[in-house]
Write a structure and sequence with these properties.
CATH superfamily of the largest domain: Aldolase class I
Radius of gyration: 31 Å
CATH architecture of the largest domain: Alpha-Beta Barrel
Structural class: alpha/beta
Number of strands: 24
Strand order of the largest sheet: 4-11-10-9-8-7-6-5
Number of domains: 2
Length: about 725
């Protein structure tokens, strides 16, 4: 790249070339002030490098004749999501300073944020920006009356929001400024301070001392509430980098969050803003608009930020480089350049409006690192899925009831069980095969019924069932599936498949599903008995979760049942279908209309297990519904031993919930389970790579189980007994002499 220097005829073609010009043109002290970051400037570099680690996933063969880059910010329309961040003392870059950059934003239909530490007054910028959208950035100063005065002036001058910078109790350690003893040039002033002391003292004492005199170390969230009490303008907090602070910002009534590390000028070592963005977007859950600044230099960077949940991006240094090059025209060119590059990225990605840009269009580079990035355990499959799937889908799959205590306990309870290995036995041949209701399987690691699997992967249940067949496992299809039971029968071929169902209010609907399952070669019916209603899953309530419009409940041929969940949401849909009046008599009724064996799913007590045997159930799936129904019930592995003891061999006992390792499978088998069924792990495998991902999950846990068997000197599943497991409490008892 040839340098762009003053006097050159070359027009800058990108933001970096504007920066080259500014580096050659601006005085060293000014350039150092604009360029510097805190300490070793690691975060300054990371703000850009983090964007480079994100790769775009374009789509093809869609009509991109009309590209619309417009959006709204706090209800106000803008033509572009590329906006101008507050940056101080812009007249050091060009004589017109803030006047030029605000006028440029208006001309390009953008949003401009004026810095309190500006060299042009609130009122003058309001005049230059005309009818354009402008926000005012401020600090809460030690002198609260000074803050109040600035707020009143901003309101009178037609600013539409206040942007409160919250990451500046003091200035960051910027060594170039310290070395230069940086001070505002004498011909300029802090134009927003009418009082002479505030307007000119920075020229005399330098910026560091000046801000120490003005800024308040004692600012808290209570001061944000105070600010909210003195203005009718919406408040945007700037400088948030953690989900925890983002949640508090929403709780105190902030309408916007600007994810920012202050251009990496405050604390070195914090994350790049694009890295912090997804966690904040997820935490906010739509309660406030989320924006980003830091590291944006290309339209593709804008696209990536929008894909990860930002509503707009704000440019700091690029605005200054445009100013330095050609005043208002230079800033306009920067805005046009990035908006044009964004439009190109949208065309290549087959997105015609900003609302179509979703996380699926971006992958972290680790995704492409081949074997080095292949998930090695189920948690890594989950990490991938959480980064890849849309937020509402992740929330639906991940959520548990209420405080999700039982959701955590399902896993923690396995960790409280310790293995007691045996040694010096021949483990040359390990056999993980068993039978389920008389049907042979190669592994006791099977797939539980989980709803709406096409939200995880386009092949959904077809891929998961085919994977189970390929690995010699058992697959349970959910009634609430996005693939019909007949299509799953085709995809699973001669594999072992069971069909999960509910007894609906409409008994004829239940009967019809039973008949279809029998005809399609399913070998058992799995009756879910813990769902008179849906559990209280707050993320789904907050999202008003509904099945995406392009999917259907494929097992229901009637239009109302097939599409109702898209229109009314899952909670209302299930209320219309599910029966509060289901009893053990209905289990007997179900048994009377089918020749298939019945497995009851959702049993957590020995008493209900005994009752299930008495009414003729052939299997009991110990399950708390993935902790999605009633919070506070035990982990499934904790109740398993008592249920096995109560059943006394009259029915096979299985388990789901919390299984993430082959050692978990071993523990469940040792305590009496005949097999374990995976819910969420199947979904994470699907999200990763469809059928292959699910096969990898099944192979992974079966292989880990085989390793546990080798270390425990058990060569077949029947060798695994309760003697191989001890609860951790066992080791806290005093030794008996």
């Amino acid at each position: 790249m040839s340098p762009i220097v003053p006097g050159s005829d070359a027009t800058p073609l990108n933001v970096d070339e504007y920066e080259q010009y500014a580096r050659a043109y601006l005085p060293k002290s000014t350039l150092d002030y604009y360029l510097s970051g805190a300490d070793d400037m690691v975060t300054l570099k990371e703000n850009r490098l983090a964007f480079q680690r994100l790769k775009l996933m374009p789509r093809v063969l869609r009509d991109v004749t009309h590209i619309d880059t417009s959006t709204t910010l706090l209800g106000h329309p803008v033509k572009t999501p590329v906006c101008i961040a507050p940056s101080a003392m812009q007249r050091m870059a060009h004589p017109d300073g803030e006047l030029a950059s605000s006028a440029a934003a208006t001309a390009q239909g953008s949003c401009y944020i004026l810095s309190t530490i500006g060299t042009t007054s609130i009122e003058d910028v309001a005049e230059s920006s005309g009818s354009g959208l402008r926000w005012y950035q401020l600090y809460i100063f030690k002198d609260r009356e000074l803050t109040r005065d600035l707020v009143v002036r901003a309101e009178r001058a037609g600013y539409k929001a206040l942007v409160l910078t919250v990451d500046t109790p003091v200035l960051g350690s910027r060594e170039p400024d310290i070395r230069n003893n940086f001070a505002l040039p004498r011909h300029l002033k802090m134009a927003n301070f009418a009082h002479g002391k505030h307007a000119h003292r920075v020229n005399e004492v330098g910026l560091s001392q000046y801000t120490k005199e003005l800024f308040d170390l004692n600012i808290t969230w209570g001061d944000v509430a105070w600010l909210k009490s003195i203005t009718s303008l919406p408040i945007v907090v700037k400088g948030v980098l953690t989900p925890e602070d983002a949640v508090i910002a929403c709780d105190v009534g902030c309408k916007g969050i600007l994810v920012s590390n202050h251009g990496a000028r405050q604390l070195d070592g914090v994350p790049a803003t694009i890295e912090a963005l997804p966690g904040i977007v997820q935490a906010v859950q739509g309660r406030a608009e989320v924006y980003l600044d830091g590291g944006v230099r290309r339209g593709t960077d804008v696209f990536k930020a929008l894909a990860l949940g930002a509503r707009a991006v704000f440019l700091g240094r690029p605005n200054l480089w445009g100013l330095a090059h050609n005043g208002q025209q230079g800033v306009e060119e920067v805005l046009k350049m990035l908006t044009s590059e964004l439009a190109h990225a949208m065309m290549f990605s087959a997105t015609t409006s900003l609302s179509e840009i979703s996380p699926s269009y971006v992958r972290h580079e680790e995704y492409f690192l081949g074997s080095d990035a292949t998930p090695l355990n189920l948690d890594e499959f989950e990490q991938y899925a959480c980064a890849y799937l849309p937020k509402k889908t992740v929330d639906y799959y991940l959520s548990g009831a209420d405080d999700m205590v039982t959701l955590k306990e399902n896993r923690l309870a396995f960790q409280r069980l310790k293995l007691m290995p045996r040694i010096l036995r021949d483990v040359t041949h390990i056999d993980t095969s068993t039978t389920l209701l008389g049907h042979p399987v190669k592994t006791p690691v099977c797939i539980a019924p989980s709803a709406m699997q096409k939200m995880a992967h386009p092949d959904g249940e077809s891929a998961a069932s085919a994977a189970a067949t390929a690995q010699g496992s058992c697959y349970i299809l959910s009634t609430m599936s996005t693939t019909s039971l007949e299509d799953v029968a085709v995809s699973s071929g001669d594999g072992l498949r069971w069909y999960q169902l509910y007894v609906f209010k409409d008994r004829d609907l239940t009967r019809e599903l039973v008949v279809r399952a029998e005809r399609a070669g399913y070998k058992a019916l799995v009756l879910t008995v813990d769902t008179p209603i849906l559990g209280s899953r707050e993320p789904d309530f907050r999202n008003n979760f509904a099945l995406p419009s392009h999917l259907t409940m494929a097992n229901f041929t009637h239009g109302k049942h097939a599409h109702g969940v898209n229109q009314m949401g899952l909670s209302k849909y299930t209320k219309e279908l599910f029966d509060l009046n289901i009893t053990w008599n209905d289990v007997a009724w179900l048994k009377s209309i089918t020749s298939l064996p019945i497995v009851v799913k959702g049993v957590l007590t020995p008493e209900d297990a005994v009752k299930a045997c008495e009414v003729g159930c052939k299997g009991i799936l110990v399950s708390n519904h993935g902790a999605r129904q009633l919070d506070g019930v035990p982990a499934t592995i904790e109740v398993l031993p008592a249920i096995v003891q109560a059943v006394q061999g009259r029915a096979e006992v299985y388990l789901d919930g919390g299984v993430r390792r082959g050692t978990d499978v071993f523990k469940a088998l040792a305590l009496g389970a005949r097999a374990v069924f995976l819910g969420r792990p199947n979904l994470w495998g699907l999200a990763h790579s469809g059928q292959q991902g699910v096969e990898d999950v099944l192979k992974m846990l079966t292989s880990e189980l085989a390793h546990a068997m080798m270390f425990s000197a058990t060569t077949s599943l029947k060798d695994i007994t309760p003697s191989y497991v001890r609860h951790e409490e066992y080791f806290r008892q005093p030794a008996k002499l």
